[in-house]
């Protein structure tokens, strides 16, 4: 499907945006919080490049990966679970302090949100980032006013790639499958959109667990959100 086909005559509709890697380059803050946590645990820091590849399934999975030092962590023993629980609490405390310190809005994001708003589009953030961190980040970066709804990774009982958060946002904003589009950077976004039955635009500049988005089966792939205009 072409971009023109996605943003068709049935608009204005509902646009659902992923946050990390799509709207905001937040990996530097996440990496700083992960590394501070690892250091507090007496471990070696992971570094930005690894952390960038671990973002997208929410903070608990990010910390599981950080403790394992790799993306595919193994199911843990009870002792590992205790360490993980402590590490997650420490990560939350660290990220609360670091959230927004180095994060920047990707080029093309603001013109896109501005244009969609002018068209009367209803816009939501649907992210796996825990909800407590989303509002402060959007506010600090001056994006808050564009969004009518924030769905975080712990807002509901499921997170992406489950379609639940997308369907919740679509229904809350009174959208329909024909007039709702998801925009994201990773397999979690494309899979969630496919399971929800709504089209998905994938951006090439995000995280996607270190892999290209070309093979994900998104309905359109763009290098900048300004291409959506
Ligand atoms: O994994 C996270 O914490 C957030 O990722 P998302 O904004 O790309 O959904
Ligand atoms: Mg993302």
TrEMBL record:
GO MF, any single term: phosphoglycolate phosphatase activity
Family matches, as PANTHER family: PHOSPHOGLYCOLATE PHOSPHATASE (PTHR43434:SF1)
Pathway: Organic acid metabolism; glycolate biosynthesis; glycolate from 2-phosphoglycolate: step 1/1
Name recorded for this polypeptide: Phosphoglycolate phosphatase
Key words of the record: Carbohydrate metabolism, Hydrolase, Magnesium, Metal-binding
NCBIfam families: HAD-SF-IA-v1, HAD-SF-IA-v3, PGP_bact, PRK13222.1-2
Family classification: Belongs to the HAD-like hydrolase superfamily. CbbY/CbbZ/Gph/YieH family.
Keyword Cell division: no
Record CDD domains: HAD_PGPase
Known catalytic reactions: 2-phosphoglycolate + H2O = glycolate + phosphate
Gene3D superfamilies linked to this entry: HAD superfamily/HAD-like, Putative phosphatase, domain 2
UniProt cofactor(s): Mg(2+)
């Amino acid at each position: 499907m072409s971009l023109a086909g996605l943003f068709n005559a049935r608009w204005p509709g509902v646009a659902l945006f992923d946050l990390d890697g799509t709207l905001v380059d937040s990996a530097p803050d996440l990496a700083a919080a992960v590394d501070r946590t690892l250091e507090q645990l007496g471990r070696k820091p992971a570094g930005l490049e690894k952390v960038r590849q671990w973002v997208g399934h929410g903070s608990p999975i990010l910390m599981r990966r950080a403790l394992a030092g790799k993306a595919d962590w193994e199911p843990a023993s009870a002792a590992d679970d205790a360490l993980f629980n402590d590490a997650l609490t420490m990560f939350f405390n660290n990220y609360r302090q670091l959230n927004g310190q180095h994060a920047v809005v990707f080029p093309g994001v603001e013109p896109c949100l501005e244009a969609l708003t002018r068209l009367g589009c209803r816009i939501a953030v649907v992210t796996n980032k825990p909800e407590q961190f989303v509002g402060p980040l959007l506010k600090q970066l001056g994006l808050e006013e564009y969004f009518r709804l924030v769905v975080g990774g712990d807002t509901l009982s499921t997170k992406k790639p489950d379609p639940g958060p997308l369907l919740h946002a679509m229904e809350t904003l009174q959208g329909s499958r024909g007039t709702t589009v998801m925009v994201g950077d990773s397999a979690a976004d494309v899979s969630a959109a496919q399971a929800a039955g709504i089209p998905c635009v994938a951006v090439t500049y995000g995280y996607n667990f270190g892999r290209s988005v070309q093979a994900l089966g998104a309905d359109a792939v763009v290098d900048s959100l300004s291409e959506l205009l």
